[in-house]
Amino acid sequence: MAVKERVGLVVSDKMQKTVVVAVENRAPHPKYGKIVVNTQRYKVHDEENQCKVGDRVRIQETRPLSKTKRWKITEILNVKPA
């Protein structure tokens, strides 16, 4: 089975070694055809605390690291300018 990967935006970095990443999914409504935006928030493991709010990151599914944390950061794609 393939490893799940997502690309999202860091929306919170207040925890130690954990960031919250929001992943947007845009899909047409099945009946009406309008584009609907669904946002899913994931708690993601950030070992070096290097991600900041506004960074675009790639995350990968991993084994459970805590009660709610099942993802880890694989790379930082865009760093938000300070």
From TrEMBL:
GO cellular component: ribosome
Gene3D superfamilies listed in its UniProt record: Nucleic acid-binding proteins
Binding partners and assembly: Part of the 30S ribosomal subunit.
Protein name: Small ribosomal subunit protein uS17
InterPro entries from the UniProt entry: NA-bd_OB-fold, Ribosomal_uS17, Ribosomal_uS17_bact/chlr, Ribosomal_uS17_CS
Pfam families to which the protein is assigned, alphabetical: Ribosomal_S17
Lineage: Bacteria, Bacillati, Cyanobacteriota, Cyanophyceae, Nostocales
Organism: Nostoc paludosum FACHB-159
Taxonomy, superkingdom: Bacteria
Family membership: Belongs to the universal ribosomal protein uS17 family.
NCBIfam families to which the protein is assigned, alphabetical: PRK05610.1 (NF004123), uS17_bact (TIGR03635)
Gene it is expressed from: rpsQ
Keywords carried by this UniProt record: Ribonucleoprotein, Ribosomal protein, RNA-binding, rRNA-binding
Function comment: One of the primary rRNA binding proteins, it binds specifically to the 5'-end of 16S ribosomal RNA.
